[in-house]
Amino acid sequence: MTVFSEETRARAREIIARYPADRSRSALLPLLHLVQSEEGYVSPAGIAFCAEVLGLNKAQVGAVASFYTMYKRRPTGDWLVSVCTNTMCNVLGGQEVYDALVEHLGVGHEETTADGTVTLEHAECLAACDYGPVMTVNYDFFDNVDPKTAVGVVDELRAGSRPTPSRGARLCQLKEMSLQLAGFADERADAVADGGPGEPTVRGLRLAQEHGIAVTGFDPNTPIRSKAEAEQAAAEAKAKAEAAKPAAASAGAAKESRPAGYAKPASDAKPAGDEAPVKERSLKDAAAGMGDTAGSPAGNERGADQ
Ligand code: FES
Predict the structure, then answer these.
(1) Domain for residue 301, yes or no?
(2) Using a 6 Å cutoff on CB, does residue 86 contact ligand 1?
(3) Of 172, 202, 232, at which residue does a domain stop?
(4) Does residue 226 or residue 137 have the better pLDDT?
(5) How many domains does the chain fold into?
(6) Among 67, 154, 248, 268, which residue's Cβ finds the most Cβ atoms within 10 Å?
(7) Cβ-contact 34, 182 below 8 angstroms
C-alpha cells in the first residue's frame, strides 16, 4: 500500500487549513485530486489517506470518489483523452471521432493503451458545444476535431510530444493537472492561458445585439457586493422583515381562523381573470419581441443595445 510522501502530507495540511476547522470535510474534493496527483488515480490507499487526515471513514470517502468521473478508480495513462459524444458533438461527428480512436488505439471506454500513455473515454457534454466535435486531453480542449486530427493528436502524445491545444494553457500530464485541481498553481512558463473568448462563444451575444434583444432591467453596472456588504444587506432585510411582523400578525388575527388544509374562502381569492391578462400580455410581447414598451419604466425590453 502506498505511503504518501511527506510533500503530499504537507500539501494535505495546507488544503485542510483553507477550510474552517469545524468543516474540514469540505477539503475532501481537493484532497482526492491531491492523492490522484501522486498515484495517477484514487487508489484504496488514497481513500484511506483522505479518511485518515479528515477523520472520516473509508465508506464516506469512497462514496464521494466514486460519484465524480474526474476521480479515476483505476490506474490511468499520462494522457486522458475524453471525446464528447453528447448530442451536439454527436450530430457533428463526435461518435466517428471516438470510434476512430477506439480502432486506432485498440482500447475502449476507460481503458489504457498497453504502453500506459493514453486512457480513452467518451464524455458527456464538455461545455464547448460551439466548437463541436470536441475532445480534451487532461481537460485541455481540441476543437472541431475529426477522426484524422484526433488520431494525429494521440500519435503525438504517444511519441512523447505535447501537441498544442486549441485554446487554454499548455498541456500537462494527468498527475500535474490533478495537482492544479487540488489548488496548487502550475509554475511553468505559459502555464496560464490568456486571451478573450472565441467568435463561436460570443455568437449568441452578437445575434442578440443584431436583433436588439436585451434582458429587461439588466444593468451591466450592477456592483458586485463584498461578503461584508452582502451580510449587511441580509441583516437589513431581516430587520425589515422582523419590523413588518406585527402588522402582518394583526392583519392575520382579523381574519377568520380555519382548520389547516381548508380551501380559501371565495372572498379571499383574487378576482377571476386577475392574472390571465398579465400573462397573456407578457407572452405576446416576448413572442413578438416588439411589444408596446412605452409604458415600461425604462422602455428597455428591446433595443437597449442598439
Ligand atoms: S455536446 Fe459536446 S461539448 Fe457540448
Answers:
(1) no
(2) yes
(3) 202
(4) 137
(5) 2
(6) 154
(7) yes
Domain extent at residue 17: 6-65
CA dist list (Å): 294 to 219, 291, 300? 19, 9, 9
Query: How far is the C-alpha of 110 from the C-alpha of 114, rounded, in Å?
Result: 13
Q: How far apart are CA 35 and CA 54, in angstroms?
A: 13
**Statement to judge: residues 57 and 92 lie in one domain:** no
Q: Does the structure show a pLDDT above 60 at 221?
A: yes
Among 19, 37, 65, identify where a domain stops. 65
Question: Looking at residue 194, what is its pLDDT?
Answer: 66
Out of 97, 126, 142, mutate this one to test ligand 1's pocket (max ligand atoms within 8 Å of CB): namely: 126
d(CA 304, CA 296): 13
Distance 28 CA to ligand 1 centre (A): 28
CATH number of 167's domain = 3.40.30.10
Residues 60 and 175 reside in one and the same domain: no
Ligand 1 center–CA 83 separation, angstroms: 9
Which of 82, 83, 85, 89 has most ligand 1 atoms within 8 Å of CB, for mutation?
Answer: 89
101 CA distance to ligand 1 centroid (A)?
18
DSSP state of 121: E
Where does the pLDDT of residue 27 fall: very low under 50, low under 70, confident under 90, or very high at 90 and above?
very high
- Residue 9 — pLDDT band, cuts 50, 70, 90? very high
Full-model pTM: 0.69
Of ligand 1's listed atoms, the one at least distance from the Cα of 84 is 2
Give the contacts of 44 (CB within 8 A, at least 6 positions apart): 1
Ligand 1 centroid distance, CA of 97 (Å): 13
Do residues 192 and 85 share a domain?
yes
Q: Is residue 49 part of a domain?
A: yes
